[in-house]
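Continued from yesterday's entry.
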Amino acid sequence: MFDVYQSKIEDPAIGRILNRAFELYRTSTTARNFSGTPTGIVLAQSLLELLCDYTLKTHAGWTEELLNSTRGFHNKLAASAAAIGYSGILLEHAPEVTSAFAKQNCKTLNDYHLLTITRNDITHVSQRVELSGFQLVQIWEASMFLAELHLFYLLDYRGQMADRRKISGWFGDTIEVPLARRG
């Protein structure tokens, strides 16, 4: 996979995006470990914004006008996930998170919306849902999982990966990257 990465970063169009994405990935991980999970979530959302916009423009045919006119980042997240071939349930291992949102009358929102609401609750004064520290970790893990899927898609990798959303205290079984094969 490193050979593929090396060849991709030599291409100015995708190389700049991949370098920025890996820097944000590393920074989000470091920030979560040293500055707290909320900081990691904000940085993970920045990473997803970069990857989603790039993916929608270059792999889903979205125009700059469509990107700018689409309301709600959660809609871009969902469209980008579909564009890379991910059709799974992002928060399938986080029933406590979906339950907390359901108690606040947010049960009709999709997982992508729950990620962006959490980020907005961190960065803005209003707070729709009070999440525990563990629930924030689950949100961060789901955000980073989605970022990893985008990176694997851009690097044409479809092998095995760890499903970081399964928080069990140890490195568990691997799964096949849950993306549709490129045509």
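--- second protein ---
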Amino acid sequence: MLIWRLADMEWRSAKSYFRVGVVSDTGKSKAGADQRHTALLESCVAHTTEILTRFPRFKSIRDVLIRRGRAFDELKKKDYALRDFNDYIAKYPDERSTVEVRLMASDILAEQNRHQEILNVLKPVDVNQNLGGLEAQVVEKQALANFNVENYPAALRKAEWLLRYDRARGLNKEEGGHYDD
């Protein structure tokens, strides 16, 4: 579909403008790159919204929903992004890619200090399955959320799980691991 290709190109272009804007050291060109970045993201949102409303049976509707949520997130429209991520989670709760969407939603909730909701979003994730390394991120976010809602026993259990996970993979902090990066 042409609209999806256009939205995808705008997303990719926005990423390029963001990188160029960060590298640029003159205020004038950085401001222009920031404006262009924002314009591309807004255009991406407009086109993905059009796809979601006009073509709800589009074959890549999952990607469209995630793309719009990520664009809203980068535009600092966190509530809209969270709504898209929650829609995705509700429509596709058992898919493997839903774990990544749950993590994106939990990042937004953490920024808003909504820690109990983080626990609700991440609760259905089975961290005893191999999720390609995402299981440690889920447990870490659960541990922090439990700590912030003052559920210290659960936070400690999650922290112990992370230590066992690291030890099983040879990522002990004493020897250097992913925490040192």
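The chain has eight helices and no strands. The radius of gyration is 19 Å. Will compare against the first tomorrow.
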